[in-house]
């Protein structure tokens, strides 16, 4: 047995030597093949990743990165699965449905367009009163104006186009009233119930009076009083759209159109109770108003210390006639168009 062992010992030494030589050769080849890859991994992930490889861990993929120098900022290269940065639109892929992201709703601040005109009634100037007259012009107009002029008093008149008479038949009296500095406003063409009219009908009623005043006086009125004191939001809208400055009501009524009709003495007595700030309704188509009431109440009110003035003055708006109208032209010369023929009849829109 010993001889046999001695004989095998040299063989085993040679075999070990051969194994070592083969191993060295193999390792050399492995280094040539694997070495460059290991170096690249080291440059990207560091020695810790190499240690992990030695322990059997799978290396993280380097897909999506590019090589960078130390002087260059590191920038990841987005892969196909990268999510777009917030705020940037995603590019739709043809053939794929894209659900739009709803934009944040924004509500625009409402733009308030104010075209309705203010409504006035009570005089605000201390100690003031205003004598106002509706429904003219008429056959008593010149006499009424003469009474006011003699008392150095200015009246306020809201006129119709075709009511008690045709406005063009009193053109001379109306022009004289205008030249004397009395305030003239609109009372609609045919004294209609404005609450029953459409926007277009109301506008037409005002337009006809404007046309007549432009022909006769050369101006368009900027103030208006509604017949029966009736108005609504549509009326105010029409007035605003047509450029009017205000709607004038009243806060005292002489009663000259009451039923039964009061006597002139009763009306004068009513005047005695009217306080400062009174904006008084009268009608220039009533003969007793023109011939008896007004000649009596003017000196009575003045004696009590009241200042009689136009409605625009007593309301503190303007005492300048240039602010009461829009100047369009010089007073016109009568022609064939100065007629109420084919125009709305009293109380009618059409």
Automatic annotation (TrEMBL):
Keywords for the protein's UniProt record, in alphabetical order: Carbohydrate metabolism, Glycoprotein, GPI-anchor, Hydrolase, Lipoprotein, Membrane, Metal-binding, Signal
Record-linked InterPro entries: Glyco_hydro/deAcase_b/a-brl, NODB_dom
Cofactor: Co(2+)
Pfam families: Polysacc_deac_1
Principal cellular location given in the protein's record: membrane
Compartment(s) where it occurs, according to its Swiss-Prot or TrEMBL record: Cell membrane
Region described as Disordered: 62-95
GO biological process: carbohydrate metabolic process
NodB homology domain residues: 127-309
GO-annotated molecular function: hydrolase activity, acting on carbon-nitrogen (but not peptide) bonds; metal ion binding
Signal peptide range: 1-32
Name of this chain's protein: NodB homology domain-containing protein
Taxonomic classification: Eukaryota, Fungi, Dikarya, Basidiomycota, Pucciniomycotina
């Amino acid at each position: 047995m010993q001889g046999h062992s001695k004989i095998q010992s040299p063989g085993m030494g040679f075999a070990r030597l051969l194994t070592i030589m083969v191993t060295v050769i193999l390792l050399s080849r492995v280094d040539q093949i694997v070495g460059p890859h290991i170096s690249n991994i080291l440059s990207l992930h560091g020695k810790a990743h190499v240690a992990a490889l030695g322990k059997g861990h799978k290396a993280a993929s380097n897909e999506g990165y590019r090589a960078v120098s130390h002087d260059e900022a590191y920038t990841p290269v987005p892969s196909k699965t990268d999510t777009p940065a917030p705020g940037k639109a995603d590019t739709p892929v043809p053939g794929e449905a894209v659900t739009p992201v709803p934009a944040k709703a924004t509500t625009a601040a409402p733009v308030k367009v104010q075209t309705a005109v203010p409504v006035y009634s009570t005089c605000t100037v201390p100690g003031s009163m205003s004598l106002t007259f509706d429904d003219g012009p008429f056959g008593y107009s010149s006499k009424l104006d003469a009474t006011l002029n003699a008392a150095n008093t200015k009246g306020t008149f809201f006129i119709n186009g075709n009511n008690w008479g045709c406005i063009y038949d009193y053109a001379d009296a109306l022009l004289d009233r205008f030249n004397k500095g009395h305030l003239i406003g609109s009372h609609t063409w045919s004294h209609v119930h404005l609450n029953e009219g459409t926007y277009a009908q109301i506008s037409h009623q005002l337009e006809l009076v404007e046309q007549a005043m432009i022909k006769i006086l050369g101006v368009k009125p900027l103030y208006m009083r509604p017949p029966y004191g009736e108005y609504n939001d549509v009326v105010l809208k029409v007035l605003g759209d047509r450029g009017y400055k205000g709607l004038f009501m009243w806060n005292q009524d002489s009663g000259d159109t009451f039923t039964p009709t009061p006597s002139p003495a009763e009306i004068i007595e009513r005047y005695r109770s009217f306080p400062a700030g009174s904006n008084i309704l009268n009608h220039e188509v009533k003969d007793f108003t023109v011939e008896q009431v007004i000649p009596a109440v003017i000196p009575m009110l003045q004696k009590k210390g009241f200042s009689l003035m136009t409605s625009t003055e007593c309301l503190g708006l303007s005492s300048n006639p240039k602010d009461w109208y829009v100047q369009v032209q010089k007073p016109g010369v009568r022609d064939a168009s100065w007629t109420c023929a084919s125009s709305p009849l009293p109380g009618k829109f059409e």
